[in-house]
Every structure is written in structure tokens, then in C-alpha cells.
Design a protein that fits this description.
With about 300 residues, this protein is mainly beta. About 10% of the residues lie in helices and about 50% in strands.
Length: about 300
């Protein structure tokens, strides 16, 4: 999306999407690129799922690195977000899951509004949130001839739901299925290009502890970091706790690279970067990567 935000979908929406158990491949270079803005008319290709997609006029899109959701926003209506996920599936299984509804968190449910319907190669229907009457959602799932499907979800303010609930049909017309291929992923992934100017975050929270690492890698080679520890994790960040600054170096091509953080008031950190299951890991911890707003 054009406006860079650290969170491109609320945990509520992401949890609902994860219930579909699909996979949208994050590929490099001439294929779909994470942490990049896609503008109207631009196309990308996801070979593992055999999907080609063109961003419709009036929309912009974004794949936050470390997630498997393609997020789009209507430029003329800031309240609209569409989330897209894809993977091996079929219409009957998708309909059964949607008709059942899903628990997004303890006591918070996405409930179907009526029964979801299969029409040709698509499943459509609407849902509401059990704890939030101010918003509703609409779902369209589209399947191709190669055993792959894409599911799209739009969340709208409840008063606008009828106005926008058919919007996904036009979005789906811009998505095409082709024969999937097993092209090698990330062979030409350049860490110094892909992570420069990005925001990386690790967040692990429970009822009794919090571990949060924030890292802003600026395009000029400087960085800002913030390490938070609470509860059972308190004190474990050591000299890197709180807000820190310094310079950084990114090295490596392919599935593994290095990030060296040179702190002004702490020892340097030499971090192993890894791509695993289409996610980014720093010293074995998975981080979400998105565009950086702290350096502007």
C-alpha cells in the first residue's frame, strides 16, 4: 500500500485469515517481492501457486515480509483493506470452513451471515464479528484448474457493507491461474538491497512476559533499535535494552546472509540472516519486515 504503516492489518484480521491455512509465496526479483509497494496496473507472478495478478486501477498493494498476505487498499476510500491468500485447496473445503466460522481469539468469532455459496469456480459470502458490530466482512474464494485457490477478504464499516460487498468480484477478475512451477526461490536474493530501509520487528507476548525487538535500518546505513522485556523476560536484553543507535552492514546473497550492528554504546552484534519457509529469521528468531517510517 502507498501509505507505509508498521501494521498493515489488525491482529483480528490476520487471525481470521490464518484460519484458511493457505500459503501465498513470497518470491524475489521478477516475481512477487515482499516489502515493496505495488501500484495500479503492476503485475506479479507467484510460480509455486501458479498465480498471476494485476493490481486493479485505483488500488495499491503490499506484501509485508514475514507474512503470507497480499494486502491492498482502495486509494479513494481509506477504510477499505483487502487481504489475499493463496494455496492448494478446493471450493468445497473452503465453503465448509467459512460456513463453520472461526475463533480468532478467545471468545472472539467470525460468524457467517447466512450460508456461503458456490457459483462456478468461486465461493462467496459475508461474516460479522461476534464482539464488534461496527465492522463486517465479505469473502470471495476463486479456484483454478491446477488445484490452487486464492481467498480474498474485505473488511468494511458495517454501514458500508452492502455498498462494497460485491467489490471482490472485480478484484478476482485480475487474478489468473497458470501451471505451477518449482522455480528456485531466493537464489538471487541480495540482503543488502532487500533489507536496507526496512523495519524489522519480533514480538512474543504471553500473560506473564513480553519480548519485543524493533529494528529500523535506514537507507543511509544508520539504524535505530528498541528492545523491550517485561515479566519473566525482564532484564534479558542486557546492554541492548531500550532505545539504541548505530550503523549497520548487510552482506550475502541467497538463503543466508549477515547483518552487523555497530552500536554507539554497546558491543557490536553479528547476526545470521536466514530465509526459511519464506520467512526472515535473525539468529533463528522470525521477524516481520515492512517499510521503515522512522528514518523519514
Amino acid at each position: 500500500m502507498l501509505p507505509h504503516r508498521q501494521n498493515y492489518a489488525s491482529p483480528l484480521i490476520i487471525s481470521f485469515l490464518l484460519a484458511f491455512a493457505m500459503c501465498f509465496p513470497l518470491l524475489a526479483q521478477d516475481r512477487v517481492q515482499p516489502a515493496r509497494d505495488y501500484k495500479a496496473g503492476e503485475e506479479f507472478y507467484a510460480p509455486l501457486n501458479g498465480i498471476k495478478f494485476r493490481v486493479p486501477e485505483g488500488w495499491s498493494g503490499y506484501v509485508p515480509m514475514g507474512t503470507d498476505v497480499f494486502s491492498m487498499r482502495l486509494d479513494s476510500a481509506r477504510e477499505l483493506d483487502i487481504m489475499v491468500r493463496a494455496g492448494a485447496d478446493n471450493l468445497e473445503q473452503i465453503k465448509a470452513r467459512l460456513d463453520q466460522g472461526s475463533e480468532m481469539a478467545r471468545g472472539i468469532f467470525a460468524r457467517p451471515i447466512g450460508e456461503f455459496e458456490i457459483n462456478g469456480s468461486r465461493v462467496t459470502g459475508s461474516f460479522y464479528f461476534s464482539n464488534d458490530k461496527s465492522r463486517k466482512g465479505h469473502v470471495l474464494a476463486k479456484c483454478g484448474e491446477f488445484g490452487k485457490c486464492a481467498t480474498m477478504v474485505v473488511i468494511t464499516p458495517a454501514p458500508s457493507h452492502e455498498k462494497y460487498k460485491d467489490l471482490l468480484a472485480g478484484i478476482a477478475d485480475n487474478l489468473f491461474f497458470v501451471a505451477p512451477t518449482l522455480e528456485e526461490q531466493f537464489a538471487d536474493y541480495d540482503w543488502s538491497v532487500q533489507l536496507r530501509g526496512k523495519y524489522l520487528v519480533l514480538y512474543e507476548g504471553t500473560n506473564t512476559s513480553l519480548k519485543a525487538n524493533h529494528l529500523w535500518l535506514c537507507s543511509d546505513g544508520t539504524f535505530r533499535s528498541k528492545a523491550e522485556r517485561k515479566g519473566e523476560q525482564k532484564g534479558q536484553a542486557g546492554p541492548y535494552s531500550g532505545n539504541k543507535k548505530g550503523t549497520y552492514r548487510l552482506m550475502g546473497m541467497g538463503m543466508q546472509g549477515r547483518l552487523v550492528l555497530e552500536y554507539k554504546k554497546a558491543d557490536d552484534l553479528d547476526i545470521i540472516l536466514t530465509l526459511k519457509d519464506q520467512q526472515v529469521y535473525l539468529n533463528g528468531d522470525r521477524y516481520v519486515v515492512s517499510n521503515n517510517t522512522k528514518c523519514n
